[in-house]
Amino acid sequence: MHATLLSVLGLALLGALRAQDGAPVQADFQQDKITGKWYSIGLASNSNWFKEKKHLMKMCTTVISATEDGNLEVTSTYPKGDRCEKRNSLYTKTEQPGRFSYNSPRWGSKHDIRVVETNYDEYALVATQISKSTGTSTMVLLYSRTKELSPERLERFTQFSREQGLTDEEILILPWT
Fold first, then answer.
1. Among residues 143, 138, 142, which one has the least CA distance to residue 167?
2. Could you tell me if residue 1 is inside a domain?
3. 82-91, 110-119, 155-164: which range is least confident on average?
4. Does the keyword Endoplasmic reticulum apply (predicted)?
């Protein structure tokens, strides 16, 4: 009985530590290869903002470029009504290649951004933990170099999003614009 209890507690502790560590980061991440134009193909989130705006969302383009000091300038262009809107963000590199931080002055939030998986010329799977004074949320993005991805890549996005605790109602394949 005592050994069983210790085993259960050990597994619970291991699970808690793994959850605290967050999503994995792409092994041997090569920052220069992530730059360029991407399409946002999928978006998953448990944030209230996402739940309120989900029905309005469409595919957007994102251009990633490296700054002189090794950070990433991320410019997303997305449809809003009958026009396009741009949003710029500076992702600050961390000691771990493939992991970045971003502070949003607009929303008062801190973002822990991880490139989870990519082959650089087809797709990138990115996980973000967002912390605000009101709580935390999870966001998963699926980027593609083209407007279409294979069913296998879409399924991997859905599977990974579920692994992050997101439900099917919180996972969206974005419609074309």
1. 138
2. no
3. 82-91
4. yes
Q: Is 60 a catalytic residue?
A: yes
Write out pLDDT tens, residues 115-142: 999 999 999 999 999 999 889 999 999 9
Q: Is 145 exposed, middle or buried (0-12, 13-18, 19+ CB in 10 A)?
A: middle
pTM, full prediction: 0.85
Q: What is the DSSP letter of 119?
A: -
**Residue 146 in domain:** yes
Q: What is the pLDDT of residue 16?
A: 35
Q: What angle is formed at CA 160 by the lines to CA 25 and CA 8, rounded to 5 degrees?
A: 85
Contact 116, 25 (CB under 8 A): yes
Q: Cβ contacts of residue 125 below 8 Å, gap of 6+?
A: 115, 116, 117, 118, 140, 141, 142, 143, 156, 157, 160
Domain total of the chain = 1
CATH of the domain at 36: 2.40.128.20
pLDDT of 172 strictly over 80: yes
Whether 78 maps to a domain, the answer reads yes
The active-site residue out of 34, 59, 60, 116 is: 60
User: Is residue 10, in this structure, part of any structural domain at all?
Assistant: no
Domain range for 76 is 31-173
